[in-house]
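During the second half of the funding period, the structural biology subgroup turned its attention to how the target accommodates small molecules. The most pressing case was zinc ion, which had performed well in the primary screen but for which no bound structure existed. We therefore specified the complex as follows and requested a full 3D prediction, including the ligand pose.
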Amino acid sequence: MKLKLAIQKSGRLYEDSIRLLKECGIDISNGVNKLKADATNFPLEVYFLRDDDIPQYVEDAVADIGFVGENVVYEKKKKVDVVEKLGFGKCRLSIAVRKGEEYGDVQYLAGKKIATSYPVILGDFLKSKHVEADIHEISGSVEIAPGIGLADAICDLVSSGSTLFMNGLKEAETILQSQAILIKNKELSDEKKQLIDRLLFRIQSVKKAKNNKYILLNAPNEKLNEIIGLLPGMKSPTVLPLAEEGWSSVHSVLNENDFWEIIEQLKAAGAQGILVVPIEKMIV
Ligand code: PRT
Ligand code: ZN
């Protein structure tokens, strides 16, 4: 039996989806324009679909699981379970207005015409703010709508912000932070659930590794206790004697969030020759 995974056929999520599988030790032999491909070393079959269709296919159990943007999942409102954030495809769904407008707050939007490909998420947002506006659904090139007089504002995905900038718009309100997530069908067999757990274990190990760095440093022995005290590590750090009398080598793992702060403290405490190395997988 194989787990059926739906990923985007081509577009912004395709390469990162394939890369994540590869980092999980799963290779797929994908012929050009194929609808599906088999993994060579995991009981997995990959379906290549348009991202908009993935929630429906997962709800209908044509695919057991899918990698797809949160924005698509919340817009489509299909009956699927959200399992895990995948750490790529990050963007935000924002409302933008013409650069020269005085936006103030969300009340600005009352009675205005807003162009978007996300009428459901936008509608829910406006409702939650008790604002009535005219939602105008368009499927692409939303950002040109204010320029051609089709709308007063837009609601669209933003990552760098350069599309808004080039169209003379400014971000006024962020209504959703989004990234690619793993979704699953609600009624899977125990066997399929076990396969998902195996895949999830690998995904989490890859994610953890990306958020952590392996660090090696040299410390004078009289400073060892102070330096060890600064290191969180997985358990306690490894300490090895150096060939040079009175010095030790200390190995540990640091989380990206407090990385620079701890490095500064380590230097101040007398650590030298600090090496920082990426981690490929992290099993805890
Ligand atoms: O053919 P298919 O339907 O599968 O693809 P698609 O054209 O609908 O989607 P695609 O490949 O453009 O995006 C797939 C997913 O990537 C989206 O659903 C999001 O979850 C995620 N993602 C991340 C983005 C962006 N970043 C993004 N910047 N999707 C779209 N954009 C667009 C945005 O719509 C705007 O036009 O990029 C432009 C803004 O980018 P900046 O960098 O100029 O701000
Ligand atoms: Zn799409």
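Two results from this model are relevant to the next phase. The chain has three domains: 3-88+179-209, 91-178, 212-278. The pocket of phosphoribosyl ATP (ligand 1) is lined by residues 8, 11-13, 50-52, 69, 71-72, 89, 91, 156-163, 178 (CB under 6 Å).
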